[in-house]
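Duplicate of #3305? Posting structure anyway:
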């Protein structure tokens, strides 16, 4: 990893272990211009890809055609309104009413480490945390202790800051780039400063990155979805014009995801060039690829400019969230593993990150709102017998909430349900030998709540308009400090009232009626972003004050599953759809970017509540094993045979979770593509161990041969292969001994290995 500046040519060369990113400061007007992003290069001398020497329309030589130059040059951070008609990265309205922007190089700095971004989640240098020392993470005062990892790899980073000026607007614009010792990611963000030419400049667009790719036939991959159908992979050929996804829902959303990959047309899991971009932010975003008249592709990512504006008063600064980009020359899988490693080593701070999470049982699908102390205790007792380690009480324990029509904001116990109160219940559950966790939805307010009756103006709404309800609730205006303080005091009160070791922080509706009584009329455009900053401030306070709390974020299932939230919580509820087959696509799409250790996944009852499908209990367990693993059912009511399988699954989790949590994830077959079966693998970093999960979705008579070629093993190692036997909770005695080369190149023959739909197998390989 390195960042170098070559003074003569004014070229910056950023190297990661396997990739190089280069930009150049043009002689004309000091424009930062993109040169190269791809496989690692030895040298900085290129054959002028941006045509900065030979350009026929270079303004210094041909001023009359400046517009043609601007409209085809690959800019690092494209300006607005001067002649580059492709989409821009930033725009303003200055006090004279003008919107144009431009950017010229002024100075730069290269240094070790990486600065924090005020108020925002961000990746950080990972050295101390990984070495198991006591270390203070960037930005926060969270003290990390005792990582279980013995990995001693250097996890340092370097940063380049390029200070640019937009003199006409009196703006300083700093472009930040960071690279890491141990990862092929490049992280970018931008800082704006009003130097005082104008008292106020309104930023109307402030994206975080722009990367220009040179001509090739590309595809885009987006992660599209809906409630209970999050993050399905959607691959399309990239045609001319703008192709974008965005959210203006106030959160990253079920519908679209702050991610875009641009890959060569023929790229697949293991071959071809792939560029992936992921936004470390939990609010509105845009991710866009634009193919120009000259077959250049401009990739932009940042906060969605729709309904965004920000007053930058003299002397003030605005920081954008960061975008992570990963280039892989070896297909989509390598991109995936770079994101996974980056998030495990440089983003997630929780002390649970490298630890086995307690196996929890959540009562949502077990009881919905219909529960009381006795029911929960009955579940806890039975769960304990089977080896489950924590009871999580979900929605419905507070105010007078017996359905989803009321009480959000009234965070005091409903004593009709929980006789003796919360502490009594928690003590009882602890006495049984289980930890206790709780659900809250702190950002919300029900019109039918004491809180709303007392503070009707605390909801986000527009005066004179009836606010739109969603799930009968409104959103608290977290841009206001007094409301954030109140919300925090409520969460704190609950967490301190009993021995609570886990919190599921939910967010069950998206934002509408953008209006804040705390902002003046000129600042209403700041509300979306200020809301997200408010959420981050609350979660920062939470993890600082309760560093031992296991926090699981959630939003109507997986509507806020993004890198921003992972900075605060090591796991996020992936989807309200717990059906094992539906989960194949949801978890595959989520794991395209996020480590398996972050995906909340539970075994639930059948027929499944979301889709009515009946699948074997065994298969539900194998699919949940690829996430955090837990249960979401009434253990006292499910069939006896299923109950008896739980201790075997518990044993399975304890046996394999270290590998699942820390290993490399590889996709072998996708049911979404082949419509028959699914297969993924997790391989330990030293390739001495692997776990293979196969799910046969639909069976067919006289099936064609199914030879499974494994991946990621060492061809020179020899492995023993055993099946996990759910009947005993152990691996079969019988073993097959095969070379890594045989397993990968010739494969294992699974033809006819199971009869029936939704059947599955778990295979464990160990080096001998
Ligand atoms: C959301 C969550 C569920 C559950 C309900 C409770 O939908 O995703 O898991 O907690 O809220 O209302």
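Output from current build:
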């Amino acid at each position: 990893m390195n960042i170098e500046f070559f003074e003569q040519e004014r070229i910056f060369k950023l190297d990661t272990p396997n990739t190089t990113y280069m930009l150049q400061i043009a002689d004309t007007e000091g424009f930062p211009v993109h040169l190269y992003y791809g496989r690692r290069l030895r040298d900085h001398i290129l054959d002028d890809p941006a045509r900065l020497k030979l350009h026929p329309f270079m303004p210094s030589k041909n001023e009359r055609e400046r517009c043609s130059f601007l409209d085809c040059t690959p800019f690092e951070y494209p300006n607005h309104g001067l002649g580059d008609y492709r989409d821009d990265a930033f725009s303003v309205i200055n006090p004279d009413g003008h919107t144009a922007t431009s950017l010229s190089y002024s100075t730069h700095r290269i240094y070790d480490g990486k600065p924090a971004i005020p108020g925002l989640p961000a990746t950080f240098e990972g050295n101390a945390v990984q070495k198991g020392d006591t270390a203070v993470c960037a930005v926060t005062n969270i003290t990390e202790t005792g990582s279980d990892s013995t990995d001693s790899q250097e996890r340092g980073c370097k940063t380049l800051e390029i200070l640019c000026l937009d003199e006409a607007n009196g703006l300083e614009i700093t472009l930040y780039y960071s690279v890491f010792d141990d990862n092929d990611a490049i992280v970018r963000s931008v800082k704006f400063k009003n130097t005082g030419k104008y008292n106020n400049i309104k930023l109307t667009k402030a994206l975080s990155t722009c990367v220009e790719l040179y001509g090739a036939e590309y595809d885009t991959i987006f992660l599209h979805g809906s409630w209970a159908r999050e993050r399905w992979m959607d691959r399309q050929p990239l045609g001319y014009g703008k192709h974008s996804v965005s959210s203006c829902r106030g959160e990253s959303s079920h519908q679209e995801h702050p991610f875009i990959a641009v890959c060569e047309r023929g790229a697949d899991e293991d071959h071809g060039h792939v560029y992936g971009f992921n936004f470390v932010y939990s609010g509105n975003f845009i991710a866009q690829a634009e193919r120009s008249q000259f077959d250049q592709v401009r990739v932009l990512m940042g906060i969605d400019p729709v309904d965004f504006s920000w007053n930058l008063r003299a002397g003030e600064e605005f920081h954008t969230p960061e975008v992570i980009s990963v280039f892989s020359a070896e297909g989509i899988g390598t991109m995936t593993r770079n994101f996974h490693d980056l998030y495990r080593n440089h983003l997630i701070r929780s002390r649970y990150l490298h630890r086995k999470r307690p196996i929890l049982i959540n009562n949502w699908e077990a009881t919905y709102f219909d529960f009381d102390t006795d029911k929960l205790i009955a579940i806890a007792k039975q769960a304990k017998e089977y080896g489950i380690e924590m009871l999580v009480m979900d929605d419905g324990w507070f105010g007078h909430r017996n359905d989803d029509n009321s009480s959000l904001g009234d965070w005091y116990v409903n004593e009709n349900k929980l006789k003796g109160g919360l502490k009594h219940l928690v003590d009882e559950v602890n006495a049984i030998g289980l930890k206790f966790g709780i659900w809250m939805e702190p950002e919300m307010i029900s019109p039918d709540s004491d809180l709303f009756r007392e503070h009707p103006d605390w909801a986000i709404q527009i005066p004179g308009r009836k606010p739109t309800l969603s799930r009968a609730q409104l959103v608290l205006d977290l841009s206001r400090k007094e409301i954030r303080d109140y919300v925090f005091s409520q969460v704190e009160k609950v967490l301190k009232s009993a021995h609570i070791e886990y919190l599921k922080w939910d967010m069950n509706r998206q934002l509408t009626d953008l209006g804040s009584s705390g902002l003046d009329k000129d600042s209403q455009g700041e509300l979306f972003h200020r809301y997200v900053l408010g959420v981050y401030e609350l979660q920062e306070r939470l993890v600082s004050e309760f560093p031992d709390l296991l926090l699981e974020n959630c939003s109507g299932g997986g509507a806020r599953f993004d890198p921003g939230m992972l900075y605060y919580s090591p796991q996020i509820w992936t989807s309200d759809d717990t059906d094992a087959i539906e989960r194949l696509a949801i978890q595959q799409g989520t794991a395209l970017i996020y480590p398996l250790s972050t995906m909340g996944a539970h075994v639930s009852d059948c027929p499944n509540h979301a889709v009515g499908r009946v699948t074997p209990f065994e298969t539900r367990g194998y699919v949940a094993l690829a996430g955090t693993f837990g249960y979401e059912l009434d253990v006292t009511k499910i069939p006896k045979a299923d109950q008896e399988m739980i201790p075997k699954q518990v044993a399975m989790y304890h046996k394999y979770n270290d590998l699942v949590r820390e290993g490399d994830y590889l996709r072998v077959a996708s049911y979404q593509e082949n419509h028959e079966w699914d297969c993924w693998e997790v391989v330990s970093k030293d390739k001495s161990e692997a776990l293979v999960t196969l799910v046969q979705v639909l069976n067919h008579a006289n099936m064609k041969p199914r030879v499974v070629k494994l991946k990621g093993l060492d061809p020179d190692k020899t492995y023993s292969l055993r099946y996990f036997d759910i009947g005993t909770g152990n691996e079969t005695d019988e073993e097959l001994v095969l070379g890594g080369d045989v397993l990968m190149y010739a494969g294992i023959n699974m033809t006819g290995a199971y009869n029936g739909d939704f059947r599955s197998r778990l295979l464990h390989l160990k080096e001998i």
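Confirmed duplicate; merging threads. Residues 130-150 have pLDDT under 50 and may be disordered. The domain at 360-656 is CATH 3.20.20.70 (TIM Barrel).
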